[in-house]
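Data card: per-record layout.
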Amino acid sequence: MGYPDQRFDVNLSILFTELPLLERPAAAAAAGFSAVELWWPWIETPTPGQAELDALKRALDDAGTQLVGLNFYAGRLPGPDRGALSVPGTESDRFRANVEVATAFAASVGCRALNALYGNRVEGTDPAAQDELALENLVLAARAAHGIGATLLIEALNAPESPHYPLVSAPAAIEVVDRVNAATGLGNAKFLLDLYHLSMNGEDLGQVITAYAAKTGHVQIADNPGRGAPGTGSLPLERLLDELADAGYTGLVGLEYKPGDRPSAESFDWLPA
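The structure for this 273-residue chain is written out next.
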């Protein structure tokens, strides 16, 4: 057991960011990774031109890297935003416009997991109205994902870093997963279990794994404190990943950590050769 038995993918929105987007897949491949994931790369627009989409597909293909996870449009991320789908007005409209674009791109590169960040609470807006809007948009996204044989991921973030994000515990995210599946009848909404975020919330990680492994569609890791590479903090990540495997999780584990002051390619020294 341990790290040698895990299959990892690298998040190109937090690692290799010292390089232009189109150079990152090749850099990940050179570091030994065949699978990558991305936040929505075009922060300014939910609907980039076809030439931009084609260029990213070409970069992934040329590097021999498989895109295994993609975020829907989520506003300014990194930045103050934490998603768009529950934010009334322009941001919700932008999310809806993105659904078709993101799923078509995912289909074109064989990506089968799409992450929909819920969005922050908006001051002066009724939380119940935001939740109603969120369900509408998540149902739309789940149906679109189903159309390409993909999973819709719902992620819990952490309260210290995302104080206005309402899903800051595993049960809160699972509740939304269940609500979406009940509304669509498709069963393709799953939990994105991020061990870093959940540990920042002070959750019992072993308990979360036992309770929710069966509803988990993807796993991401970083150490805590610091959101650095495994071994830079105090989380027993190797043991926790073994527990996930024992609980039946067979998917990839996304590396979503900050490389620190060194080039990203040098931040994988914790991995077995």
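Known properties of this structure: The helical segments are 24-30, 50-63, 90-109, 127-147, 170-184, 195-200, 205-212, 237-246. The first strand starts at residue 8 and ends at 11.

See the next section for split statistics.
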